[in-house]
Description:
Elements: H1 9-12, H2 14-28, H3 30-36, H4 39-59, H5 63-69, H6 72-91, H7 94-126, H8 128-136, H9 138-150, H10 163-171, H11 174-205, H12 209-228, H13 230-236, H14 239-256, H15 262-290, H16 295-323, H17 329-347
Helix pairs in contact: 2-6, 2-16, 4-6, 4-8, 4-9, 6-16, 7-8, 7-12, 7-13, 7-15, 11-15, 11-16, 11-17, 12-15, 13-14, 14-15, 14-17, 15-16
Amino acid sequence: MAYSFNTSVGTISQIRTIASLLGFISALGMSMLSIKYPCRSLLLSGLILIILSALGTALSGSLFLLFIIYPINGLASNMVLPSINTLVGEIYPTENRARIMGWIGSSGGLSYMIGSIAIVTLASRWGWRSAFILYVGLIPIIALVAVWLFITESDSQSFEVGLLDGFRAISSDRSAYSILLASLLIGAASQSLYFYSFTFIRESFNLNQYVASYIFSAASLSFLIGSFICGYVVEFLDLKKTCILSLLLALVATFFYPISSPFVSIFLILAGHLFFALQCSATNTLILEQLPNFRGSMMSLSASVSYLGYSLGTFIGGTLLIISGWSMFSTVFGFLALSSLMIIYFFVRNPANI
């Protein structure tokens, strides 16, 4: 994409910054939307917007249009993800929620694992625009049909708490707003591995895009495994200890991969994806359990601060690439991960019966 629009990777990466900012803003309104509209309607609307964003991105003829159309994906994601996560708390019993959250994360890892190969293959043969049409746009169409056929309106319930009531409850509970702050920092720190690590290994180790795509698929498999084992790890440790341990190991991978030899760097990238996935499922469950009466507000704000974190992470990463290259990645992103770990350790409570 950067080559097509005659710009740098650091510049083109800012479309994700804008998408994340739009996701942050739109997620703030999800508390009201989730009260007024059933989850099925929000899922369908979000999937339609994702389809429109993908097709519009593929048809963009200028960088200006790309920066307008692609970020719609950020708004759409926050019509889908908070609804799904909140329904986990509404439908499943407490003891099963960490496992279900892990399965949701695993499904995302599976889509990335398959998608990386599909996108590279399509882009190599017919250009990156074909990948947006034939993969990024096609998958949500399939999901749209599945939601329409298999999720009935009676399965979706609007949340009973109001927007202001949710804000008041969260702002008066130290553990609740602390885990949201930690989630923001985790979102920022994760972009070093999720978004920039594959550019790093291509540029630093002179790997072609096919090799990088296979590494990306392996990383997606690591993410899938990390998400899938979350419920089992939580049963063995507990929810908070799982968050802390997995985040600590992700911190090690984040700090050392940009300053290691090729094989060690690739190993750390794969390991980092596993541990970030494990903490992601555990942290989402921890957020879900903080204020059971305000799950809708918590999950909407969680999506909001996560997108703000992704925006912060992509902005920091792009800025570092422009200013100093890869030399500062370890220090800056390692500090973000360490800060989130300390907040969870000292200020977030461990819910009972998890």
